[in-house]
From TrEMBL:
Role in flagellar biosynthesis. This is Flagellar biosynthetic protein FliQ. The chain crosses the membrane at residues 15-40, 52-71. Its main location: membrane. GO terms for cellular component: bacterial-type flagellum basal body; plasma membrane. It comes from the Bacteria. The gene is fliQ. The keyword Membrane applies. It comes from Novipirellula herctigrandis.
Amino acid sequence: MIDASTAVDLCRQTLISTVIIAAPMLLVGMAAGLAIGLLQALTQVQDQTVSFVPKIFAMAAIMVACMPWMLNRMVEFTRMMFENAGSP
């Protein structure tokens, strides 16, 4: 049985790892949304699909590009969790 401080530390590490793994996709989605929004404001095109499709493609591209790093990070985190699960 783990004590409360260990459980809180594991939850904190889980949240930090989640944010770090999701950050590239979120940042690219935000940058693409900002760029598309700026282009829409400059050209006065107000179609919702114009902003949605490029963001999806940009986020999919960065996900494919970062997939090896993301998987490595998740495997290392899982390994660390299993190693810490057995220790008192």
